[in-house]
Design goal:
Distance between the termini: 13 Å
Number of strands: 10
Largest sheet: 7 strands, mixed
Helix content: 10-25%
Radius of gyration: 17 Å
Order of helices and strands: EHEEEEEHEEEEH
Length: about 230
């Protein structure tokens, strides 16, 4: 079946201040149910959370090294990740029934969205066949045991789908405290040459509002009315 035309633009909502994780999840749940019932349109919620860890459906207890912040068990895919101030979390609620009911294609589109946003700030992001998320090569850092080039993760993905309505989404490190990631093994990846980074860590001092502008622009180029995703 061919994708149907998207009837209305995606609603964007930017939350002020720090949003409690349970509040964000409840709002997502409500919106997903409303989209499925035909009572609301698609939406993207942009939030920042207070410091916390989330555990996805594949999280291993041993990857929680130091529970210095609250830990939330969640139904999204993936393992442990950190959320906190200075990190832009985008919760994406799209109706794949009307777009393309293909999870691989949806994840690839999310990754392409992040990479295009990074490119707008002259940051070169890339994906890996072995690892989820978007990464930045760090040739100035020590190489791996097998002489692999060092890479740092700048964005994480974790999604959930109910009746082909998506929720959860992406977390983009703008200027979080990177030391807070040391309380977990982020996404289960512990190799010494793989770490985490941010816009600020890479020397790009930008505001959250500047990032939001690029996120929206690139989202519309990938998920806009003429897209099949």
């Amino acid at each position: 079946m061919l994708p149907q035309p998207i009837a209305a633009p995606v609603e964007w909502r930017i939350f002020d201040g720090l949003t409690a994780y349970d509040t964000a999840v409840a709002l997502m749940e409500q919106r997903v149910d409303a989209i499925a019932a035909g009572e609301a349109g698609e939406a993207v919620f942009l939030v920042e959370h207070p410091p916390l860890y989330t555990a996805g459906t594949s999280a291993r207890d041993g990857d929680l090294v130091d529970a210095r912040f609250p830990v939330h068990r969640t139904g999204r895919g993936g393992q442990f990740t950190y959320h906190g101030p200075g990190q832009r979390v985008a919760y994406v609620m799209l109706d794949l029934n009307r777009r393309r009911p293909d999870l691989r294609a949806f994840v690839a589109a999310l990754e392409a969205w992040i990479i295009a946003t990074l490119a707008g700030f002259n940051i070169r992001g890339a994906t890996s066949e072995e690892r989820v998320g978007v990464w930045v090569t760090r040739p100035e850092k020590p190489r791996g045991l097998l002489d692999e080039t060092a890479e740092d993760k700048i964005a994480a993905l974790g999604i959930r789908v109910r009746r082909w309505i998506t929720f959860h989404g992406i977390a983009l490190n703008v200027a979080p405290d990177l030391a807070h990631f040391s309380g977990i093994v982020p996404c289960g990846i512990s190799a010494a040459h793989l770490g985490v980074t941010s816009f600020a860590d890479l020397g790009h001092l930008v505001s959250m509002s500047e990032v939001d502008v690029l996120l929206r622009r690139e989202f519309e180029s990938i998920f806009g009315p003429t897209s099949v995703l």
